[in-house]
Amino acid sequence: MSHFQLQQALHAPAVLQEVPFYKPVGNECTLFEVAYRQQLPLLIKGPTGCGKTRFIAHMAARLGRPLHTVSCHDDMTAADLTGRYLLKGGETVWVDGPLTQAVRTGGICYLDEIVEARKDVTVVLHPLTDDRRILPLERTGEILKAPDGFMLVVSYNPGYQNILKSLKPSTRQRFVSISFDFAPLEAEVEIVSSESGLPVEHCIPLVNLGKRLRALKEVDLEEVVSTRLLVYCAILIKNGLDPFQAAETALVEPLCDDLDVKEGLLELIRATYG
Asked: Rounded to a whole number, what is the distance in angstroms from the first to the last CA of the chain?
């Protein structure tokens, strides 16, 4: 990209996007907008499947900013975020990573499950999360200054935190933070119905079932039933599957393999659907 093309990209108007459906359950939309306007990095905590990623996509579209999403993992390197030199057509050219693309274009960079990334990778974020708002690219010698439209958002599931997978205090304290949880009953019914097309009256017993499954204390599950799985179950029901079979397929089988645990979950489903 030439200097002229780069300047055009930096000053181009925001692209209109279709806003994905999201049901607010508090003041999280206002908090996000304030953080965006004040150029504050944002950390979102919450269980798997509670709507964190949908919320980010919704807010990016509302604000008219391009969204660059990265699913973090323990093999990810700093170069995966910032970029690297690649051989193209016999020439070695620099190719921006998603973080660098977001900085150059004034977009939102969303790092999902940041605790899965190696600690040396998260250090790359530090200059972007203080008043400098810069991204040094050692390989190219550039120091990119983040434009006003750039925002850094990270998320993780606190349920997975342990001594080996947690954010360093020096990283956590660079973010303002919002805690997410599963939506209240009426809101979750609306979400499941909107996402699946299943009528509200059929979603009510399904969401009630999900709430009861989450409340089980005697069953040892690594994860609880997510809103995402309730949507999948509703889609199966809408497309003709018996509710019991749909619940077994979407709510029980994805969560565990232990036969005794599965039978305990199925008993609760039988009590709901008969």
From this structure: 63
